TrEMBL record, chain A:
This is DUF3343 domain-containing protein. InterPro entries: DUF8182, Se/S_carrier-like. Residues 20-85 form the Putative Se/S carrier protein-like domain. It comes from Desulfobotulus mexicanus. Pfam families: DUF8182, Se_S_carrier.
TrEMBL record, chain B:
InterPro entries: CARKD (IPR000631), Ribokinase-like (IPR029056). This is Sugar kinase. It holds the Pfam family Carb_kinase. Coiled coil: none annotated. Residues 134-266 form the YjeF C-terminal domain. Keywords: Kinase, Transferase. It comes from the Bacteria. GO terms for molecular function: hydro-lyase activity; kinase activity.
Amino acid sequence: MFFRKLFGRKKAKTSRADRGMLLFDHTSDVIQAENILKAEGWTIKVMGPPPEIQRGCDLVVEFPLMEQMRILETLKSAKVHPVDVVPVTGPLLSPVDLFHTKDFGEYLMVRAANMKITIEKKSRMIVNISGGGCPDVPFLADQLTGKILEDAPQPREIGHTLCGYALQLAYEEIKRQCL
Amino acid sequence: MLVIAGTVPDLNFPLVTGPARLEGDSLKVGDHLIPVLRGTPALVAAAIRTAEVVGDQSPHVILAGDTGRGGGSRLVYRHIVENAQSFAGTTLTFHYLQPDVDWHNRILMALDALSLQPVRIADAGFMYAAKMSGYAASYDLFTPDVGELAFLADEKAPHPFYTRGFILHQDQNAPELIERAYAHDNAARYLLVKGAVDMFASGEKIHWRIDSPGCEVMEAMGGTGDTITGMASALIASGIDMEKGCHMAALANRHAGMLTSPTPATQVAEIVRAIPQALASLQKG
């Protein structure tokens, strides 16, 4: 009896049957939805979709399925519209969570996945952005290079792809290390 | 002839095709001036400088504005599919394009139907799409950096963002990653791996490695991988053997870097300006 309870509890904890996925046309919509829902206090995660619905630079918002109606209402009020809502039936891909930091003396570089951001330590000016392959990378680099770290726009505000999302993580990590 | 397909980071930039030339630090295509900061314009600029040195014609470009929502990339994809016949026998380099497997496969089908195949080179977003599609082996050359090599080595990752940690940790062990990429059919016929040690590999072996002149700070500089791919594309299009062309490009990029006495704040336009001198020094040496 004790073991049945124990295993039953464990199974419930690892089950994903209570989670759903919000699918969007663009990664930028995912980022916007994440910002809105997190600001409203929802417990959500940005994850990678299962292979059967992967098209390109994809992210989905994983959310508690029981809250679907209120979450959709929140997004509707903010004029952010998912193209579909489906239950999670299998494991989702986890975004990269490893950072690589390189100290060049006067400069510091942080890499997240395929994206790198480099600042001059003294001024905290962003001096270079490199890596990546999605078309918002050169755009993000143009917008951020030459700006002081705390004054620069956040990549998540102006980026649209997974590369932009990876740059956001690198940006947050370098801020954590320097500010 | 070299044809380069990619994007420029300007939402209002229309689909533009034609020969590209340099005016100062900007590209000129038709009436359009495009600053060479990084990305596809840097690749095109490096290819132009290289073509000038080897006496070849300027590259033909297919460019559209895209800041990440994919609209410009789709214009480029559509243009290639609708004009596939005109790419027979060319060297075709695909670069910063929104990864889109559907469009990638349409392009591949259109190219496969040609009687005279182009040499197919893929880098950046289009290389991601090529790997995701499962048709990586349909390409002649991929030019990944070490992080992208880890992505090619991870048979489950649909994008470098999802490269699994246990593979990402191995990025100091490129030979193992190369072997893994080929084992899962996620590599082109040849790989030019760009990094602290540049490598040229096939499914059989690593053909060469270059680690000098060493220029560690170039890792931080946006666009230095683009300039290698641009030079390699131009050299291959001029008729130089792929292995030798990639070797020259990797070495010239290092020399061009050294000529600028770079810091992590150096911008790629300076590398582009140094390319003719770097290539000339290789030809003399």
